[in-house]
Amino acid sequence: MGASKNSTSPIFLFFLLLVSSAATSAFNVTNVLEKDSRFSTFNDLLLKANLVGDINREGVVTVLAIPNDNIGDLAGKPTDVIKTILKTHVVLDYYDILKLRTLNKPTIMTNLFQKSGVATYGQGFLNVTKNGTVDQTIFASSVKGAPHDVHLLGTVAAIPPKLSVLSVSHNIMTPGIEAITFAPPPPAKAPAPAHKAAAPSPDNREPDAPSPSDDAPSPSDDATPPSEAPTADAPKPESPVADAADADAPKGASFKHLASSSLGLVLVLASFLAAY
Ligand SMILES: *[C@@H]1O[C@H](CO)[C@@H](O)[C@H](O)[C@H]1NC(C)=O
Ligand SMILES: *[C@@H]1O[C@H](CO)[C@@H](O)[C@H](O)[C@H]1NC(C)=O
Ligand SMILES: *[C@@H]1O[C@H](CO)[C@@H](O)[C@H](O)[C@H]1NC(C)=O
């Protein structure tokens, strides 16, 4: 490592600069989708579910878009359900058709629903396989027993290495996901008024006082009490449900970190070049 340091440093810095500038220049998924009228319904649903900002902020995603004709009964579902289902169609990594072709074994991909912190039994992951008989890429929920019937149709758009939009035959069925979403939404932001176990003080203080024991009454690594679950926008950005395939998540985070430090990189590169 020490011997080759002088020759690799400029290349490494240049690579970092490329990566960071790529992550900085954001895409807007709805602007990309609206260019292809075959996906206007899917795009409308993303807007209706208020997911465009979430997807854009991820920075590196693959969106599995469903053509208008195949959207099925998805459009008629309650908005909360649409939101949850659409989150399972957003993979937190970049996969275009070429990259999918190189996968020669079942691949677990993290989806945006995993970030909600309420995904269980693999609902936050997709299991992507090949059907060799018909040479198709198959997308399925990684929940046990989920149907393996959604196949890749083609590319809608690609902005490597940030955004890939692929079309799929219809929506991916994730067992149990609608039950989560159908929980009655809490009317206000006040979280869990019922828990009095800790009883921090007798007065009527609002529960936003950040006591470290706040989380204790609701163990979040199994079925979360439905009243806290779906509507609050990402109460826990990183899901504590650590799973085998969680390795995808930090990648996006490090991209953002790189992006935020790109100015620093420019300065580092400039001073390096000046010294060169
Ligand atoms: C994305 O595009 C939509 C529609 O044009 C617009 O309303 C929204 O503000 C854009 N978001 C960003 C972050 O540019
Ligand atoms: C592959 O596709 C064919 C044709 O749709 C289907 O009959 C078969 O069951 C599929 N195989 C697997 C393993 O899903
Ligand atoms: C992914 O799907 C394949 C094919 O059905 C299956 O053999 C494999 O066990 C699944 N992997 C996971 C982690 O669910």
Automatic annotation (TrEMBL):
Residues 191-202, 211-230 have a biased composition (Low complexity). It is found in: Cell membrane. The keyword Cell membrane applies. It is a lipid-anchor; GPI-anchor. PROSITE patterns: FAS1 (PS50213). Its main location: membrane. Residues 26-157 form the FAS1 domain. It comes from the Eukaryota. GO terms for cellular component: plasma membrane; side of membrane. Keywords: Cell membrane, Glycoprotein, GPI-anchor, Lipoprotein, Membrane, Signal. Residues 183-254 are annotated as: Disordered. Residues 1-26 form the signal peptide. Belongs to the fasciclin-like AGP family. PANTHER family: FASCICLIN-LIKE ARABINOGALACTAN PROTEIN, FASCICLIN-LIKE ARABINOGALACTAN PROTEIN 14. This is FAS1 domain-containing protein. It comes from Cinchona calisaya.
